[in-house]
C-alpha cells in the first residue's frame, strides 16, 4: 500500500504532546485561507511512500512518543493512515490526527467511508475543524485557531459525545 506525502518531520515537538513523527498528507479539499502549510493543498504534488517503509522508520526511532497524521487532510487517505496508525499503536505509541473535518462530520460519514471509521478508531487525539484565519490565536497549544478542538477520541467514542482535552 502507498501513501502520498507532502513531507515528514521525524522529531517534532509542536504537532502534539511529546516527540512526534509527523506525516503530512498531500492533498486537502479545505484549502483554508492562511493555512501554514499551503503546499499540501494540491492532490497532484508530494512524494509516494510505501506505508511499510514508514512504519519501519517509525519503529526505528526509540525517542518518539507517537505519530501525528497531519496535512493536507489525512482523512482523504484514510486507508493508508489507518494502517500506519494501527501499526504505531501496536508499538505502544500514541496517535494524533489533525483534520479540517469536524468530529461530528467524520462520525456521520464513517459508515459510507469505512476507512474513516478505522482511522478514527486508531486515533487517540483529534484536533478537528478548519483553520479560520480570523480566529487565529497564538496562545493556543497544538492548534492555530480558536474554533479547533483537541478531542480525546477514546473517551468520546465511549461516552457518545465529544470529550475535550485540556492542554
TrEMBL record:
Its cofactor is [4Fe-4S] cluster. Keywords: 4Fe-4S, Iron, Iron-sulfur, Metal-binding, Oxidoreductase, S-adenosyl-L-methionine. InterPro entries: Aldolase_TIM, NrdG, Organic_radical-activating, Radical_activat_CS, rSAM, rSAM_sf. It is an enzyme of class 1 (oxidoreductase). Its EC number is 1.97.1.-. It comes from the Bacteria. It catalyses: glycyl-[protein] + reduced [flavodoxin] + S-adenosyl-L-methionine = glycin-2-yl radical-[protein] + semiquinone [flavodoxin] + 5'-deoxyadenosine + L-methionine + H(+). Belongs to the organic radical-activating enzymes family. Activation of anaerobic ribonucleoside-triphosphate reductase under anaerobic conditions by generation of an organic free radical, using S-adenosylmethionine and reduced flavodoxin as cosubstrates to produce 5'-deoxy-adenosine. This is Anaerobic ribonucleoside-triphosphate reductase-activating protein. It comes from Lutispora saccharofermentans.
